[in-house]
Amino acid sequence: MKKLFIASLIASSVLSSTTVFAETAEQSKIISTPVAFGATTTFDGTITPVNGLPAGATEDNTTIATVSVVNPGAAWLIGNDPNDTANSTKAPDQGWVMKSLSDSTKQVKVKVSNDGRLDYKPNLGGRNWNRMPPTSVAKIVTNTKQTIAAGDDYELAVTIARYLP
Question: Number of C-alpha atoms within 13 angstroms, CB side, residue 7?
């Protein structure tokens, strides 16, 4: 009887351990991007949003996205949103308003962080810019503590340019 009881405990232990430590894969998806070989040296940029941003109370200087460029030469420039005409002449770190595409009452005050910038270039080509090192990534952050309404269609736009001294 003792052998049967011990065998039952061992079998029970083995069976329960397989369910406790079972592996799984969740939220599987295919991601892709074009990869160019022999491409031209065209200057371009990419905005990468931060995933999982909570709605509601948001602290000042919360990173919401990063901006990176390819083929910048010696340096590159970043300015604010050209579509926000009320703020297009401000310095990038003074900010602008990012709006929801479906509900213009949903707004977020954002700005370019000065982290990593080389210097400020006022009125260059009719705009104000932060000059960035060639391999740097610029951060777009919230411009004050604010309450942000939930939404998945806030449109973030910035102006970038290659810097030619």
Answer: 4
